[in-house]
Amino acid sequence: MPLCLGLLACTAWLPAQELRTPSAPSQPRIHGPEVYGVRPGKPVIYRIPATGARPMTYRVQGLPASLRLDASTGIITGDAPPSPGRYAVTLRATNSKGSARRALTFVVGDKLALTPPMGWNSWYTHYNRVTDRTMRAAADAMIASGMADYGYSYVNVDDCWMRLAGEGARDAQGQLLTNEHFPDMQALAGYIHAKGLKAGLYTSPGPATCAKYEGAYGHEEQDARLFAEWGFDFLKYDWCGYSRIAKDRSLPELKKPYERMSAILQTLNRDIVHNFCQYGMGDVWKWGEAAGGECWRTTGDLGLEKDTRLPGFYSIGFKNAAAWEYARPGAWNDPDYILIGWYGDARGMRVPQKARLSAGEQYSYMSMWSLMAAPLIFSGDMEKLDPFTLNVLCNAEVLAVNQDVLGRQARIVRKTEEEFILAKPLADGSVAVGLFNIGENQRTLAVTAGELGLKRVRGVRDVWRQRELGRSLESLRVQLPPHGVEMFRVR
Ligand code: GLA
After folding, report:
1. Prior bond to 329 cis, omega within 30?
2. Burial (CB count <10 Å: 0-12, 13-18, 19+), residue 16
3. Of all atoms in ligand 1, which is nearest to the CA of residue 159?
4. Backbone dihedral region for residue 348 (phi beyond 0: left; psi -120 to 50: alpha; all else: beta)
5. 48, 73, 108 — which closes off a domain?
6. Is residue 28 part of a domain?
7. Of the candidates 102, 49, 104, 106, the residue with the CA atom closest to the CA atom of residue 74
8. Are 435 and 464 in the same domain?
9. CB within 8 A of 389, min separation 6: which ones?
10. What residues does ligand 1 touch, defined as CB less than 6 Å away?
11. Fewer CB within 10 Å, N or C, the chain?
């Protein structure tokens, strides 16, 4: 029996199902979405996500003149072309083992986030302990761990970067001040950008954030301008302290602060993705897009959700799944972050502990979020990424389901107390399907081509293990352990 000499040696003899994602080949493979939405003339930062042995060099054919490529890092920067339109380019990555190419289209228009945002958020690891250092370390780890090579790109600070609300939180001109842990926000955004990543931050339309830090109320335009000047690319706008301001919970009152901020963001000199955080009030999925959002939380905080018979991510996931008809490119239902690896209990804002979810539950979590076209924002500890966590987060074919250009959210094909099935139509006419056992016993699950809306099946692929399974519908009949999942791409 092999000795367990370290994390990697140990994982080598975990049961086969524990590490599902095969390791990336040393030949280059380019990942990421096929489209990048940007407004005319606005700054672009895009790091070509590619796996394979380093050093790697990059080329881009057909790059608009206003953009440039750093051939050694694969980072594309510059400004989007001034005229709306579709600008198709071919990306190439080359290393000593070979070369890969992939098409990407810059869609210059009025839509951002044409595929769900992917990245990391500080909340569930750092809470009010977040600092400039932890943010930089997260950006470093996004590159060093390889996450960025699969398309993770946003590095987002959540609450607690400003001062406590009230006196002393702004200067004499009303300009928002940071607390002592954030000496220079512009330098922080610059640090993140230099790696080809994007920077996000958080505030509230109310006078105070959820954690009682200074919010934007009465300073919305001034704050948004400051965020753009600093160079931020993503704003989570958290209702919280606005409860005191809203006259009631009527639709116009629920929409008001979000419409206002969206209108301001449109006038800035950079694109800022607007993430509504108001926990799904007023069925936000029905009006979030019209109110100018790119994504909106559909539920309360995942980290506060009580576990029942099942871990809380399932019930949050089911609420989010119900709004499936409303998701589309640039308009995503957000069921909150991916809490695997090491993260801190939100009750008490604790320091990170290892997730108590089983391996099957973690693969189920990632499968659900991917099928639901949810923003894939990890919120565990970036400084404690282990091979298993990365195996769950970084499966190119699972991520391709999430990032599929058609932008449809999976619908629930079937759901009982014991099992459920999600099916997501994809741009190439195939269907991604997830079979989930939520019972306490092993069970057999099966889905028919008819249930998937397909007349016949030309091929089935095991998405997690990245293996062809042939044409037989039998492969859509699986035995699953309690809280296990299988995910297929059916052509
Ligand atoms: C709310 C949000 C969380 C987090 C905290 C910060 O609870 O829903 O995601 O941003 O506020 O205080």
Report:
1. no
2. exposed
3. 6
4. left
5. 108
6. no
7. 49
8. yes
9. 340, 341, 362, 380
10. 123, 158-159, 209-211, 238, 277, 301
11. N
Domain-ending residue, one of 60, 77, 108: 108
Query: 162: CA distance to ligand 1 center in Å?
Result: 14
Question: CA–CA distance from 381 to each of 122, 236, 352, 353 (Å)?
Answer: 8, 20, 7, 9
What is the domain extent for residue 44? 34-108
Active site residues: 238, 301
In a domain? residue 357 = yes
**pLDDT by residue (tens digit) across 320-345?**
999 999 999 999 999 999 999 999 99
For the chain, the 3-state helix, strand and coil shares in percent, each to the nearest 5, are 25, 30, 45
Extract the tokens encoding 158: 């959540």
Answer for the pair 204, 238: CB distance below 8 angstroms, yes or no.
yes
Assess whether 148 and 91 both reside in one domain.
no
d(CA 408, CA 374): 10
pLDDT of residue 348: 95
- Is residue 225, in this structure, part of any structural domain at all? yes
Distance CA 128, CA 120 (A): 16
Residues of the chain with confidence (pLDDT) below 50: 1-17
Number of domains in the chain: 3
Q: Of 321, 298, 316, which is closest to residue 420 (Cα–Cα)?
A: 321
Tokens (6 digits) for 82: 């001034």
Which candidate, 94, 108, 120, places its Cα nearest to that of 30?
94
Tens of pLDDT, residues 184-233:
999 999 999 999 999 999 999 999 999 999 999 999 999 999 999 999 99
Same domain, 299 and 381: yes
Residues 6+ away with beta carbon under 8 Å from 405: 33, 34, 35, 114, 115, 329, 427
Q: For a substitution probing ligand 1, which of 122, 123, 235 has the most ligand atoms within 8 Å of its CB?
A: 123
The answer as to whether 423 is a domain residue is yes
